[in-house]
Amino acid sequence: MATVELKNVSKSFGPVRVIESVNLTIGDGEFVVFVGASGSGKSTLLRMVAGLEQVSGGDVLIDGKDVTFAEPAERGIAMVFQSYALYPHMNVYDNIAFNLRLARFSRDEIDKRVKEAARILRLHDLLSRSPAQLSGGQRQRVAIGRAIVRNPKVFLFDEPLSNLDAALRVQMRLEIERLHRELGTTMIYVTHDQVEAMTLADRIVALDNGHIQQVGPPLELYSRPNNLFVAGFIGSPKMNLLPGHVVSAEGGVATLGLEADAGARIALPMPAKAGDKVTVGVRPEAVEIVSGPAAGDTALPAKVESVERLGNITFVYLDAGAPDVITVQVIGQTALTPGQAVQIGLRPSQLYVFDAAGKAIASAANP
Ligand SMILES: Nc1ncnc2c1ncn2[C@@H]1O[C@H](COP(=O)(O)OP(=O)(O)O)[C@@H](O)[C@H]1O
Ligand SMILES: [Mg+2]
User: Fold this and answer.
1) CA 207 to ligand 1 center in whole angstroms
2) pLDDT digits over 9-21, tens only?
3) Measuring from atom 3 of ligand 1, which residue has the nearest CA?
């Protein structure tokens, strides 16, 4: 068990800066998820914690000790990758035992650790199988087993579930959550999948282009995104974004107009002045579809483009004159059909507003 601290950590490959002065403290036993699009620098940051990549600047501390220039083996970490890289000619037991044998642990100690890992990962019935006789999920559990037997202070995961099909991913996500609960070890987990981030993390670190955009508990990023990047990245389907401007501002309250509909008006407290460009955000579950006459100031005329019926939920995609299609999530089912003219109502209590630089300046959850 250990804390992990990154102090002004940066990384360049040649002239290209890929990590920009990252400061982050991860608590003992915490489960932290680095999330961001492909190429945002997640793996590079994790590999600098592991010691597989040298920092270009800054310090890395594990358990209070400066390991910036320590070898990976000296850091007390164990890493699990997307590719399981099991030895095909060895059975499960020997795969898990391999590193312990290299490190010359006693036969009894190896046996004890392998059996304990097998118990935790529910692999006991598979110990004599070869990797070829295992499913993808079981192979990944063996790879995690190899990490567990080393008793690391910190577990590092780099997209460990990306090779698995959707159903297995859900199952393994629950396994990893259970693993963390059982071991209580500090874990850093990299993924591009915001659902994995939301479901696993104590705290999410949202990365874009080598910059930390926001750090916080999942629902804080969901309810109070700092900026357009986090607002668009966290939440599925994505938050709807509508270009707008400040019509008037007085006493800390601004009245906004939307480019999509000259008549719409939204009044919210925010620091802004008349003429400012803004982006209004509203999540798919916070848009109402109203048939019939306009439902107040924030109702926009729209046309149904397509309808996706999942049974328990229906996604309705509408053209409301905005650059992007508007997504609405309806609980249960609806009789709406493509081509139908409707009104959409944006719930004023669930709107977000971002300034021209993308910074959040108003949100229902953070007035
Ligand atoms: N060894 C390397 N040499 C040069 N550029 C690299 C190297 N490794 C990663 N990069 C670049 O650094 C950026 C971040 O990569 P990476 O950390 O792998 O992103 P992620 O894991 O978020 O997809 C990317 O632009 C990638 O092309
Ligand atoms: Mg990566």
Assistant:
1) 13
2) 999 999 999 999 9
3) 13
- Structural domains present in the chain: 4-233 (3.40.50.300), 240-363 (2.40.50.140)
Confidence (pTM): 0.93
Both structure tokens of 143: 């790879």
CA-nearest residue, atom 18 of ligand 1? 43
* 39 pocket-lining for ligand 1 (C-beta < 6 Å): yes
Residues having C-beta closer than 5 Å to ion ligand 2: 43
Q: Which residue has the tokens 């620098």?
A: 41
212 alpha carbon – ligand 1 mean position (Å)? 16
Contact (Cβ atoms closer than 8 angstroms) between residue 56 and residue 18:
no
User: Which tens digit of pLDDT belongs to each residue from 24-41?
Assistant: 999 999 999 999 999 999
- What is the rounded CA–CA span in Å between residue 172 and residue 191? 14
